[in-house]
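Re: the request from the purification team.
They wanted to know what the chain is likely to look like in 3D before they choose a buffer screen. I agreed to run a prediction and write the result into the notebook, where they can find it.
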Amino acid sequence: MADDPVTRFEMEGAVPMMPWWAGGLGIGLILLIAVALVQPIGVSTQYVVLDGVLLHAILPDLADQSPYLKHASKGWTLATYEFLFVVGIPLGAFIAAAATRRLTGRIVPSLWAQRFGPAPARRLGWSFVGGFLLLFGARFGGGCTSGHMISGVSQLAVSSFVFSTALFASAILTARWLYPERAER
């Protein structure tokens, strides 16, 4: 029983809050509402918008030299549906965790601690590096997981299917590389 993946998952204290199908229906409903009211869902562009708005406010000459960020002087603002959506993602996660009493101060998950040690600085450092690489890749590739996997796949975009396949393959390979002892089970 202890080797059952579901039991191991539950023993970690991360029992799903809802069935997978309910989460899928929720995401689909959010996508339908977003497309009907505004536009398809996408997140990674808003980080560029934030960078452009902040840099243009602090160092406008430097911002205008960047072909990528100079658009901030042409009306980029943080008061948009997209930026509020991005802010709402971690805020909603925090509220849901607090409301269901699943909010913990744990920075280092037990699986990480077993493999790489219990140091919070190491976990936070590698999390930052991974997040940076993910965001860099998203902007370099012209879209993020929400833009491609939710909006793009629902529109049957071939590029989104290619992206989704590559993402899952690289996630599986990365997990097997980081946790080889778990991959053998």
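For the purification team: The chain is about 70% helix and 0% strand.
Please add any questions underneath this entry.
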